[in-house]
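protien #1 (seq + structre)
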Amino acid sequence: MANTRSLPDIKSEIDRLIEDRRATRLINPVLTVFYLREFQSTGNRTVNFNLVKSGYEDTVCDVVKNHLHHNFNIGGQFNDSYVQRLASRHHILEAIGGRDFAIAPDYAQHCEQLIPYTIQKTKEHLNTKLSNLARLEEVIRRNAREELQEILGDSTSRKLREFLRSGFDPNSAGFLSMAYGFEICMFAILKVLLAKFGCKIYRDSKTYSSDKGTDLGTNFGVVYQVKKKCITTEKAFTDLASELLLNFADGRIQEGNVFVVVEDMDDGFKKRLKDQKINCLTQNVVTDFLDKLDAEEKWEILKQIVQEFKRELMSNVCRSCRRPEREICPYAL
């Protein structure tokens, strides 16, 4: 395998590493940058395993602070299985002995080009997915609500609804279309709305599949199940109804305390759910609740959206950072 891959082949492998849909947080690209930088610094392809965890975390901090300027979807908790995977699956590293690994010779040969390439491609990939979220987080962090005054001050809430769909940049994923975004936006709106009536709603767990859905608990006996689904076929309706009847006790359903929140549902299916004592809210119904909220409450919704995305996507390294400079770093929260 050594010295057999061309630079374009190596770059293609790095692209696959970055675009891996299974990666909830990018770890392997950061580890690759760390090993390349170690070779660039020492001239030695082999890195003592005892140095890898701290070196990886230092690299996460550098990429976040100096390149990404956000801490979403990057830098998960370190595990030595990632290093092994870079060797066995991607052939970026080579096993040397014990727990030590070395950067592959052909990667070392091109390290001057590969370090900036990997960082830039990581940045481009995450910005395509998350630039709207990163910008909103930065606005919330600075408490710069004046930058969203036109959206917050729209009494019809049309501009806020559009903002949830498209964000600042329509070329990036909107908040409702991001992974977990539908669930998070529905939760944030319901939480602020229900607070007007002295009611509380809770989203205690994190979810890793937009199809799986999640339960939202309350302090008044009602439970909401949120699913990013459009129920327009008999099979989709049957599957949903069967799941709800299986998940919730008959008593809670019969008392009308079960709500399902979906993207959309045909009126006929809504009626059939209602006949089974199950309530349905669609995305349009929930976003219409925005008309009942003032500018301050809409600002609270946006703050809640950022908070929930942080629970899902914030870097574990940033979350657990113990470095002395942490106090002046806006990402180590």
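ok now protien #2
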Amino acid sequence: MANGSPIEENITDYDVVNRTRVVLDLNATHSYNLTYVDADGAWEGLISSNESEDVTLIFKANSMSYKCINATTTIKFRDAFYYTLRFYKGANMTTDVKTQSYKNEFQYVYMRFYNTSTSYTDSTIFRDMSYMDRVFRWLPWYEASFTAKADDELTFWDKYDDGEARIKLYEAPRNYTISLMTDDTYGLTWEDEFTRPQLQDYSWQSKVIPKLKISSAKDTTLSIYLSRWEVHKFLFLMNIGYWLLVFVIWGILMMVITKAGWKAAIGFTIGYFTFMKMIGIAIF
């Protein structure tokens, strides 16, 4: 309706001409009457195409009981293709060095259309500040101040399983970004194909490929070599509180150890950070 309320079927208008109905026009050449589904309070119809094309849809509501407005949108029909992404530990690809796959370091891989804008306001780190609560929640005086916002940007994604993710794409030629993500949640399934999984408020994402040029819509397998820093750089930010604690303790102890000489200080530093890595606080 013009006031934003949903249009329901009016069964009291028995005259076909005056009965409440919603008509769907395709490219202003074909019209279809939508069917009202009382259980969902929705108007439904089925359309299909055997071509890759953009179709203009015009929804026209007609009723003696409602003051209605029309709505126009576009639907895209595409042949899907798949990019299988495999991530390996290392800085580059060489033929004489044994490679090792990343397995459990992240949960999801997602791709998005490359954004040519350089505005800082387009960055997720500025649009969603909820990660600040996780960074500083260890401080006794800190109070959670940010609410996680739903990320509804168009996203193509897949779960990273057994060393690979198979992502379903639709547009080529096109430039894409590739990002890694985890939210430390297992056992739940994200149902929305076109938004990234958001099973909890806190998650980390790391954009590892800022711009990938995909020239044709064909199934492709990519091997991507990433350093440990590229995989864990956002996780480092998430755990900055632990890092601060590690260095504070190290600094205090060093004031005592250095009195025994520089050799003792070096030995203590190596042993200290090795221990911190073993218990999972330090990542390097």
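The radius of gyration is 27 Å.
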